[in-house]
Design a protein that fits this description.
The structure is a homodimer. The first copy, chain A, has helices spanning 4-22, 29-36, 40-46, 50-75, 79-92, 94-100, 103-111, 118-121, 123-139, 144-168, 171-189. Chain A is mainly alpha-helical. Chain A folds into 2 domains: 1-48, Arc Repressor Mutant, subunit A (Orthogonal Bundle); 58-189, Tetracycline Repressor, domain 2 (Orthogonal Bundle). The model of chain A has no long low-confidence stretch (mean pLDDT 95). Chain A binds a DNA duplex through helix 3.
Chain lengths: 195, 195
DNA sequence: GTCTATACGCAGATAGAC
DNA sequence: GTCTATCTGCGTATAGAC
């Protein structure tokens, strides 16, 4: 119990990066051993299986997402500005997106196949964004159902841009599309809900 | 040389389905053996490695894509109708999309990580659609650069819808979004290019 | 062309010393 | 808590008989 939590975090940090960069299936425990400079036994002590590591990562990511969304809620007052900030996230992450794609999207693509771990792992992350986005549209006075529909559409747009940026390794495309998307948000939602 | 080509096709067909349903990394040669009811040695005779199978699959898919696009070119005259037909593909494939995502998109997500096989494998498939879509916009009298931009945006939209449909296992979302997308195409491009 | 049998490495999981 | 050592299965690739 010396500094178990600290090494635990180190393992999660390293594994998260490896899973993101190489994919979950293509990352071995040995890879994690190398990069953490810890022993295989030590890692096993903290996480009994590879999937346990993945679950730990997602737990951490969910906390990060919640933290980010809460921060935006505090720093940004206008719902529309929050939506724009959401889109800006892709600009911030453009280098990662180019080389590795969306951390949630690519992980889902990998996990949703063969086994339904996906439901417990990647789906919750998407749900956080979905409900947060929905909340912003509610604040813009859209009815519940349409708020959710708008949220899903925005999620969809952002995912599409991520995929194409990743596939064609094209940051120019990303910047152009995000700019257009932001303009669309202004036009579509700038005035709030009009029945 | 009895009927080598026939078994070759059988291997490709089965492997293609398995790679799509389970993912490339999670599919073993043994899986292919089971499903083809061929021996492991026989498969090795036709394809010297797992990656060779993948390359064979992509070769086949490229032919399929070209065939499909040529068919559309022949059957459908108006470029706008061709774009609508392109969107309709997602409706046709909605069950597969729900459970396994876009065949090109999910494969890219898997392969683009760790190794750059991706450039030779999945990128060409995307490029076919990109240039075909670009061609349609050119026929609508859009300038070359904007034609390509429109093509990329449409690709992006469609990929986004695929991802979200897959993540949330939501066919209702897909149908609604495709309907909206088609309407948008009508409005945006229905009149052709206006300088 | 198709099969069986085998080699070899690496992955993940486990046991136990310090 | 951290380490080294070992077990076991599965994965790909190969050799060779028919």
């Amino acid at each position: 119990m010396k500094q178990g939590n600290e090494t635990k975090i180190r393992i999660l940090t390293v594994a998260n990066e490896l899973f993101y960069h190489q994919g979950f299936n293509s990352t071995s425990i040995a890879n994690i051993v190398d990069k953490t400079k810890l022993s295989k036994g030590n890692i096993t002590y903290h996480f009994k299986s590879k999937q346990a590591i993945l679950e730990g990562i997602v737990e951490q990511r969910l906390l990060d997402i919640d933290g980010l969304l809460n921060q935006w809620d505090m720093e940004i007052i206008a719902p529309l500005d929050r939506l724009l900030r959401f889109c800006g996230m892709l600009i911030d992450e453009q280098d990662n997106l180019k080389y590795y794609g969306c951390p949630m999207g690519t992980l889902t693509g990998e996990l949703s196949k063969n086994q339904p771990i996906h439901y417990k792992i990647t789906l919750p992350m998407f749900k956080r964004f979905r409900s947060w986005l929905t909340q912003q549209f509610l604040l813009l006075n859209y009815p519940p159902e349409q708020s959710d529909e708008n949220a899903m559409e925005l999620l969809s747009r952002v995912q599409g841009i991520s995929v194409i940026t990743h596939v064609f390794k094209d940051k120019e495309f990303l910047n152009k599309e995000i700019k257009k998307l932001k303009e669309t948000l202004h036009i579509e939602y700038g005035g709030g809900f009009i029945p």
